């Protein structure tokens, strides 16, 4: 394509673009580029066409390619700028920035295009957040421009640009101010936004004078702009803000500015603020406050508006709002965005001073401390008199008067100093001086409300001169109120003046209402207003006021309102809501005892006694001197039946206030209640003491207040409730001044009748004070009724008639009182009147008055039963039971009916009555049934007997019931007899003896019951071991006819060792016996008595006769078996054992079998095997385990472990009542070496401690404990524990040796153990031991052998030495046996020497038995009496002599003997064994 065609193609492309035929243009451009790919114009046209076809990427590539081809040509760059401007984005804006920069270089010579491009660049920098660069570009253009018109336009655009910036640098701010100043001097116009920014910058960077000039210029040039007017108004308000007086003064120029601004914009916030300022200057405080509140959202950064709002609140005495506003003002002042046209220093000081004033008037401790800190800050800049004065007022409120005086001395004479001095005098209660000072100040400044108020307060507090200055005080208060009508305190004082001085409650109420309306936080005004409303009868209005206050109150505030609201709610029976109110009051002041008392009262009224008790307790803790709190605590405890604690509380009150009548009355009433409780439980003596105490305190109360009928009634109750007590031996102590109406302070004793008469007199005094009280007439009638029942009353009928008259009087006052009708019925039925028909009528009337009346139904039923109408009685009792199932009398009635008709349920009914409550009829009836069932032999071992007696624990239940009965009825011999029988059944023979003796004293001599009771007494004496007294009683009867009595007489004679008479008695019993069973038992007893005679054959004959009868006496068989064992009659023994094991269910046959194996066959192992077989068959039999344990303890050989402890433990588990087994367990564990070191849970020491704990009276347990401690000390390795154990053992031994009941053998053992302990601890040295032993041996020999003669002992030794030498001849053996028998008779207890001699005798006749006896001797004499070494040696030699025939079989036992002999140094025994070996 030639150049012409290229031009033509480019031209066609241009025309196509012009016609918006972009595709055609692209086609032409492609043709050109096909020939010249770097054709600049073609590339530019491609970019334009592609952009028109919205092919952005192709257009951008084309423009960039063209710029690369010709970088200094503007066309491609202009295309790029147009493209980027058309497609804005952060990336494109950055690219556009470079494009503009390139174009400004290209248009360097073309001023217009350069200026235009530079402007675009500047605005792009502004858009990209780089305003400084943009401003610099404009400044550069401005400096380069030469044409004034261009410069003026650039300046205007630059100012507009600066006004759009969010923040300016300091240079930019100065530049803007200078430019605007220049523009203002020219004819050019400025945008209002620029003007506003200009004025704001002047405010920021220049003083108020410059600002004033700038505002004047702007206002003159632009009179239609409102912002300059607003700034001018702000400037004037700020100047007034910084002026000296608290209340600002308004300049006249401000009015013209406000007028001009209102013409432009009458809704301008600044105009509203100026109007508020104008109202404030005119002391129109409420409009001023409203204006400032209205404009505050729009002028939130304007300091003066917030200050003046706070000042308005302060002058209106809205201190909370004022403090909030001044705090916000201080915060705004610290911000950069604040608007203030004057210097910050004075403004800050002014704000702090106002803040101090607000905090000072608030008066709370925290506010005062904060205010004091602010004054300290201000005083650092210099001692300002105003600040010093404020500091003085703060210190005065903080009660730091000395510091205030120092400040007064620092201040110069003037109003400020005199004011502070007046406050100081008022604080010190020097009211005359204070009055004089404020009088002087009022003369100087008559329009100061504070001075008038303080003057009036000084007069008010000066009580001595108040009466002479009432009018002056009133005038001063009125003057002060006129000057400051928004001060609540003023109207509060006016209210007090009207209420306390002029007694004008209506005016006072208005003043208090005004005071409270002005300041809702003025608690004094609120309290007084509410109290006056109540006094004026406006309770509903007061209630609504309290509701409004409490609803608006925050938590922990308005205690006075919550308290009065709660009191109102309590008064109008809304205790639950009152509780919430009092709780809210406590949140405000949790340490106010009065509020706690009110809360407790609300709880008490609601019935929440426990909560009330806690609240009153808290109140008493806060105020220990509050009698009311202590009294209510006692009352509540009395109400809650905490009677003992209530008594203690009442006594605590009376300790400090002995004449406090409510406490005396409450204490007496509590004692009466406690007496009633004790009577219901059967504690009659306690009840009498309670009544005596009640009467003592009530007498003290009535001495102070004899006009109170309630006290006289309680005194009557304390005398009357004792009517159930027995007359005999009754003695009631009462104050002598009460009974005899004298001035004596002593006391006198009354019997029961006199006590009841005293109660009636007390009721009479109560009726004189309250004659229309029906209940008092009832109490008097009941007291007279009880008197009429006493047998010692001569005119019972007359007294009963008086009782009826009193009750009728009560009915005339209260005809519907069912209790009076019921008591009147009792009077007609039971007293001397004997009018059962009238009684029936009264009971029916009582039921009609109160249908749910179990007492009246029961009395009516009893009347029916008494008259023989059983069916009606049963129906009436049934109704009473349905009404009150716990009323015991109706159950007793049903039991009596069941007993009358012969029903078997009678006993269960009587038992049920004893479970419900003590009652004489129920107790006696149940005891009678129990005794009857016990005596009925036909019912023994029946299901009825097992249930009634065993399962229902009839014996203790009947005994307890009869005990209560006898406490009330002391003249019934039959009851005493039954009580004795019940005690006898339980094994309480001493108590049974006393009961029988009491019964005998009460029975007439001719009564048939006396013989029965005497025989019961004799039987009991016999069981107590008092056989001689029992025999005396039996002898008085002569010939007895009862088999049981004859047998008991024989037993008494037998126990008294009067065997002859005993035999005769049993022979007499055999004659009157009419059954083989009884005869068999009597023959057995005769055999035992014959044995005591020494008639063995006669005994055997009687016992054999007993065994021949059927059923044979088991005791007789056992005795016959024992006799066979004793006489070594194997045939007899085996025959009886066969009979014992073949008949009966007990284990006596097996016991005797064990004895047979041990005694007759000398086979202990066989006995042990037999017992083990028995245990295999009956492992639950504890007696077998016990016997096996004892067998193993007694016959253990060698070092083999024993199971004695295990057996004893098993027996104890099966038979827990046998606690003596603890000793056996201890011994078994000692034998097996069970110590603490081996097993901490199961050892000898622990078991010994348990045994002592269970039965400390048993000395055997202490022996075992000492042994266990000693064994533990042997095993102990730690020195400290060893010392402690030995010390414990020594103290135990010392105590045991001091016991008089200690047996001689155990005393010897204790001395030996004590010597060992002393030797181990070093108290006794080895050198001194020999001398001590000699002395001790001599002492022990004398102790052990004091019943033996020395020559007898020596002779015995010589004889059994001869026996050991060659067996001895027959004469020697007989002599030895004789001496043994003689020594046995001389010795009271088995002595080891005697046991040894008996064993030596058996060596010839029964060597096997001799072996076991010798082993027993070794066990018995181990570590015992002084002859122990010799006895041990001889016993070992005897045992070796017996064992010589079976050396291999008895090798283990022989080795044990030799080992012990070697340890004891017994060389004689070792030599004797060697001699036996040689002989064999």
Summarize the structure.
Helices cover 76% and strands 1% of the residues. It is mainly α.
Structure description:
- By secondary structure, the chain is an all-alpha fold.
- Helices cover 76% and strands 1% of the residues.
- The protein has 80 helices and two strands.
- A two-stranded antiparallel sheet has the order 1-2.
- It is elongated.
- The N and C termini lie far apart (163 Å).
- Residues 1336-1355 have low confidence and may be disordered.
Global Rg: 62 Å
> Reading side by side through the largest sheet, how are the strands ordered?
1-2
What level of helicity do the residues show? over 70%
Number of DSSP strand runs: 2
Class derived from helix and strand content:
mainly alpha
Give a topology summary.
Blueprint: H1 3-18, H2 22-35, H3 40-52, H4 56-69, H5 74-86, H6 90-106, H7 111-127, H8 131-144, H9 148-164, H10 170-185, H11 192-205, H12 208-221, H13 227-241, H14 253-264, H15 269-281, H16 285-295, H17 303-315, H18 319-333, H19 344-362, H20 365-379, H21 385-397, H22 401-410, H23 415-427, H24 431-444, H25 449-461, H26 463-466, H27 470-483, H28 488-501, H29 505-518, H30 523-535, H31 539-552, H32 559-571, H33 575-588, H34 593-606, H35 609-622, H36 627-639, H37 643-656, H38 661-681, H39 684-704, H40 709-720, E1 732-735, H41 736-739, E2 747-750, H42 752-769, H43 774-788, H44 796-813, H45 818-830, H46 836-849, H47 854-866, H48 870-883, H49 888-901, H50 906-916, H51 920-935, H52 943-951, H53 954-968, H54 973-985, H55 989-1002, H56 1009-1024, H57 1027-1037, H58 1043-1055, H59 1059-1072, H60 1076-1093, H61 1096-1108, H62 1114-1126, H63 1130-1142, H64 1148-1160, H65 1164-1177, H66 1182-1194, H67 1204-1214, H68 1221-1231, H69 1244-1254, H70 1259-1275, H71 1279-1297, H72 1304-1321, H73 1326-1344, H74 1350-1366, H75 1370-1386, H76 1392-1405, H77 1407-1421, H78 1428-1443, ...
Antiparallel strand pairs: 1-2
Helix pairs in contact: 1-2, 1-3, 2-3, 3-4, 3-5, 4-5, 5-6, 6-7, 7-8, 8-9, 10-11, 11-12, 12-13, 13-14, 13-15, 13-17, 15-16, 16-17, 17-18, 18-19, 19-20, 19-21, 20-21, 21-22, 21-23, 22-23, 23-24, 24-25, 25-27, 27-28, 28-29, 29-30, 30-31, 31-32, 32-33, 32-34, 33-34, 34-35, 35-36, 36-37, ...
């Amino acid at each position: 394509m030639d150049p012409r065609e290229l031009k033509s193609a480019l031209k066609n492309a241009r025309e196509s673009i012009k016609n918006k035929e972009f595709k055609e243009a692209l086609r032409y451009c492609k043709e050109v580029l096909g020939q010249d790919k770097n054709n600049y114009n073609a590339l530019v046209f491609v970019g334009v066409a592609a952009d028109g076809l919205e092919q952005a990427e192709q257009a951008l590539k084309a423009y960039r390619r063209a710029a690369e081809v010709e970088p200094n040509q503007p066309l491609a760059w202009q295309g790029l700028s147009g493209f980027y401007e058309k497609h804005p984005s952060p990336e494109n804006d950055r690219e556009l920035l470079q494009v503009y920069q390139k174009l400004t270089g290209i248009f360097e010579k073309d001023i217009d295009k350069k200026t235009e491009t530079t402007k675009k660049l500047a605005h792009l920098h502004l858009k990209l957040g780089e305003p400084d660069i943009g401003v610099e570009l404009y400044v550069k253009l401005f400096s380069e421009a030469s044409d004034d018109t261009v410069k003026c336009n650039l300046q205007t655009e630059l100012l507009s640009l600066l006004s759009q910036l969010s923040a300016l640098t300091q240079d930019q701010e100065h530049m803007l101010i200078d430019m605007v100043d220049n523009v203002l001097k020219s004819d050019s116009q400025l945008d209002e936004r620029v003007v506003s920014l200009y004025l704001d910058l002047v405010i920021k960077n220049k003083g108020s004078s410059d600002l004033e000039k700038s505002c004047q210029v702007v206002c003159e040039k632009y009179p239609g702009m409102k912002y300059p007017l607003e700034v001018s108004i702000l400037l004037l308000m700020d100047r007034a803000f910084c002026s000296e007086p608290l209340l600002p003064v308004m300049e006249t120029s401000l009015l013209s500015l406000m007028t001009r601004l209102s013409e432009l914009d009458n809704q301008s916030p600044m105009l509203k603020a100026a109007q508020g300022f104008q109202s404030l200057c005119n002391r129109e405080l409420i409009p001023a406050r409203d204006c400032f509140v209205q404009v505050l959202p729009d002028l939130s950064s304007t300091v003066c508006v917030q200050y003046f709002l706070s000042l308005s609140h302060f002058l209106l005495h809205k201190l909370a709002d004022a403090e909030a506003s001044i705090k916000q003002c201080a915060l705004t002042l610290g911000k950069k965005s604040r608007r203030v046209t004057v210097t910050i220093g004075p403004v800050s000081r002014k704000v702090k001073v106002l803040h101090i004033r607000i905090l000072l008037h608030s008066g709370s401790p925290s506010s005062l401390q904060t205010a004091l800190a602010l004054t300290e800050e201000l005083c650092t800049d210099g001692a300002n008199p105003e600040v010093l004065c404020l500091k003085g007022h703060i210190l005065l409120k903080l009660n730091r008067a000395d510091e205030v005086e120092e400040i007064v001395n620092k201040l110069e004479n003037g109003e400020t100093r005199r004011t502070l001095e007046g406050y100081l005098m008022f604080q010190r209660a020097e009211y005359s001086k204070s009055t004089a000072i404020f009088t002087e100040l009022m003369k100087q400044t008559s329009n100061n409300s504070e001075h008038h108020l303080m003057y009036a307060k000084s007069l008010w507090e000066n009580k001595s001169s108040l009466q002479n200055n009432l009018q002056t005080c009133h005038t001063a208060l009125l003057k002060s109120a006129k000057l400051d009508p928004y001060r609540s305190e003023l109207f509060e004082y006016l209210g007090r003046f009207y209420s306390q001085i002029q007694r004008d409650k209506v005016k006072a109420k208005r003043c208090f209402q005004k005071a409270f309306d002005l300041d809702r936080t003025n608690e004094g005004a609120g309290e007084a207003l509410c109290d006056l409303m109540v006094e004026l009868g406006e309770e509903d209005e007061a209630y609504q006021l309290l509701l409004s206050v409490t609803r608006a109150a925050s938590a922990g505030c308005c205690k006075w309102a919550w308290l009065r609201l709660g009191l109102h709610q309590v008064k109008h029976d809304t205790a639950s809501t009152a509780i919430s109110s009092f709780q809210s009051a406590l949140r405000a002041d949790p340490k106010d005892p009065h509020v706690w008392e009110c809360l407790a009262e609300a709880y008490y009224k609601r019935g929440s006694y426990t909560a009330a008790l806690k609240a009153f307790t808290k109140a008493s803790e806060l105020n220990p001197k509050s009698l009311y709190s202590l009294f209510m605590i006692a009352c509540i405890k009395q109400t809650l039946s905490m009677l003992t604690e209530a008594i203690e509380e009442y006594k605590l009150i009376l300790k400090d206030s002995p004449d406090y009548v409510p406490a005396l009355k409450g204490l007496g009433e509590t004692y009466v209640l406690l007496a009633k409780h004790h009577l219901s439980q059967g504690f009659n003596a306690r009840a009498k003491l309670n009544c005596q105490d009640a009467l003592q305190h009530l007498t003290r109360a009535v001495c102070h207040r004899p006009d109170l009928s309630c006290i006289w009634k309680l005194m009557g109750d304390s005398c009357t409730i004792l009517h159930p007590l027995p007359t005999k031996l009754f003695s009631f102590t009462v104050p002598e001044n009460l009974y005899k109406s004298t001035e004596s302070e002593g006391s006198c004793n009354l019997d029961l009748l006199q006590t009841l008469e005293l109660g009636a007199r007390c009721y009479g005094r109560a009726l004189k004070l309250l004659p229309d009280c029906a209940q008092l007439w009832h109490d008097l009638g009941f007291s007279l009724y009880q008197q009429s029942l006493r047998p010692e009353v001569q005119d019972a009928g007359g007294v009963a008639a008086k009782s009826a008259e009193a009750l009728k009087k009560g009915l005339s006052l209260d005809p519907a009182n069912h209790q009076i009708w019921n008591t009147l019925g009792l009077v007609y039925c039971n007293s001397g009147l004997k009018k059962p028909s009238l009684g029936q009528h009264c009971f029916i009337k009582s039921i009609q008055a109160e249908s749910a009346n179990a007492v009246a139904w029961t009395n009516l039923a009893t009347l029916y039963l008494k008259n023989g109408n059983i069916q009606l009685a049963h129906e009436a009792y049934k109704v009473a039971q349905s009404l009150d199932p716990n009323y015991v009398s109706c159950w007793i009635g049903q039991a009596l009916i069941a007993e009358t008709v012969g029903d078997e349920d009678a006993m269960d009914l009587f038992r049920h009555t004893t479970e419900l409550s003590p009652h004489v009829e129920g107790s006696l009836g149940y005891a009678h049934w129990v005794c009857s069932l016990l005596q009925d032999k036909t019912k023994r071992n029946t299901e009825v007997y097992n249930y009634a007696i065993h399962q229902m624990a009839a014996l203790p239940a009947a005994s307890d019931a009869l005990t209560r009965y006898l406490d009330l009825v002391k003249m019934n011999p039959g009851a005493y007899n039954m009580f004795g029988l019940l005690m006898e059944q339980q094994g309480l023979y001493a108590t049974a003896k006393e009961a029988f003796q009491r019964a005998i004293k009460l029975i007439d001599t001719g009564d048939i019951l006396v013989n029965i009771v005497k025989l019961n007494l004799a039987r009991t004496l016999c069981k107590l071991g008092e056989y001689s007294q029992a025999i005396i009683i039996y002898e008085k009867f002569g010939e007895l006819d009862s088999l049981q009595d004859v047998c008991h007489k024989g037993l008494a004679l037998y126990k008294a060792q009067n065997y002859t008479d005993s035999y005769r008695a049993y022979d007499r019993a055999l004659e009157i016996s009419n059954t083989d069973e009884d005869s068999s038992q009597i023959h057995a007893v005769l055999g035992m008595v014959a044995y005591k005679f020494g008639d063995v054959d006669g005994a055997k004959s009687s016992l054999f006769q007993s065994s021949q009868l059927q059923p044979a006496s088991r005791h007789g068989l056992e005795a016959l078996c024992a006799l066979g064992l004793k006489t070594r009659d194997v045939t007899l023994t085996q025959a009886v054992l066969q009979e014992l094991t073949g008949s009966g269910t007990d284990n006596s046959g097996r016991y005797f079998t064990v004895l047979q194996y041990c005694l007759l066959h000398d086979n202990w192992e066989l006995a042990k095997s037999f017992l083990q077989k028995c245990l295999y068959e009956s492992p639950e039999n504890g007696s077998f385990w016990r016997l096996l344990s004892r067998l193993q303890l007694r016959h253990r050989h060698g070092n083999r472990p024993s199971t004695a402890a295990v057996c004893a433990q098993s027996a104890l588990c099966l038979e827990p009542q046998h606690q003596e087994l603890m000793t056996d367990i201890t011994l078994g564990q000692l034998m097996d070496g069970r110590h603490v070191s081996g097993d901490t849970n199961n050892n000898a020491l622990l078991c010994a401690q348990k045994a002592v704990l269970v039965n400390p009276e048993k000395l055997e347990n202490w022996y075992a404990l000492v042994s266990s401690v000693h064994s533990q000390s042997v095993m102990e390795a730690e020195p400290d524990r060893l010392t402690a154990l030995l010390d414990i053992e020594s103290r135990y031994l010392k105590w045991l040796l001091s016991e008089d009941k200690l047996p001689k053998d155990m005393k010897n053992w204790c001395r030996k153990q004590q010597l060992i302990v002393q030797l181990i601890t070093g108290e006794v040295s080895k050198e001194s031991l020999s001398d001590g032993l000699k002395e001790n041996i001599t002492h022990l020999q004398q102790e052990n052998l004091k019943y033996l003669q020395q020559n007898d002992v020596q002779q015995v030794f010589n004889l059994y030495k001869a026996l050991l030498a060659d067996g001895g001849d027959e004469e020697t053996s007989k002599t030895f046996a004789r001496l043994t028998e003689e020594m046995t008779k001389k010795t009271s207890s088995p002595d080891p020497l005697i046991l040894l001699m008996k064993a030596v005798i058996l060596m010839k006749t029964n060597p096997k038995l001799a072996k076991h006896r010798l082993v027993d001797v070794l066990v018995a004499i181990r570590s015992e009496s002084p002859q122990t070494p010799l006895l041990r040696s001889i016993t070992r030699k005897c045992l070796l002599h017996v064992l010589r025939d079976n050396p291999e079989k008895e090798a283990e036992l022989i080795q044990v003997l030799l080992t012990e002999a070697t340890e004891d140094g017994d060389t004689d025994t070792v030599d004797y064994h060697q001699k036996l070996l040689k002989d064999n």
